């Protein structure tokens, strides 16, 4: 299993030879690590196997909510016709966003999830919170008129 950065918005994780449950668990750990450390808004899982095993299908279904939890758009590329048909017959084509080529996956992710723009840096949120806190603690008094007392007392 290897992964590489396709461009600034896409990371590709290749899955080859996932047949048994031990292979699937190792592949799941690898992909979950990639999703946690992902520096791109979209991850394309590239399946380059001629057959689709139940363990691989279960792995892909488990990865989708995990990717959503981390805010990563997940797309699956099935290079072989049999694998693409098996995913379609299982009803997973829309859930897993199955495509046949990497270029189709790039097009689908850029349309569906605003992947064309990079994620804002984490410091932006902190900066916004500081500005909001500053505005709350130190309100702008320039535009306000001076407060006039509503009752005047005559002290003699």
What's a quick, concise take on this entry?
The protein has 156 residues and is α/β, with parallel strands linked by helices.
SSE inventory with pairings:
Blueprint: E1 2-7, E2 10-15, H1 21-36, E3 42-47, H2 54-69, E4 73-78, H3 81-89, E5 98-99, H4 102-112, H5 122-137
Parallel strand pairs: 2-3, 3-4, 4-5
Antiparallel strand pairs: 1-2
DSSP summary, beta strand count: 5
What proportion strand? Answer: 15-25%
In N-to-C order, the SSE pattern is EEHEHEHEHH
Approximately how much helix is present in the residues?
40-55%
> Biggest sheet, open or closed, and with what strands and sense?
5 strands, mixed
Placed side by side, the strands forming the largest sheet appear as 1-2-3-4-5
Q: What's the overall geometry?
A: elongated
Terminal residue distance = 91 Å
Summarize the structure in words.
With 156 residues, the chain is α/β, with parallel strands linked by helices. Helices cover 44% and strands 17% of the residues. Helix 1 runs parallel beside helix 2. The longest helix is centred in the N-terminal third of the chain and has 16 residues. The N and C termini lie far apart (91 Å).
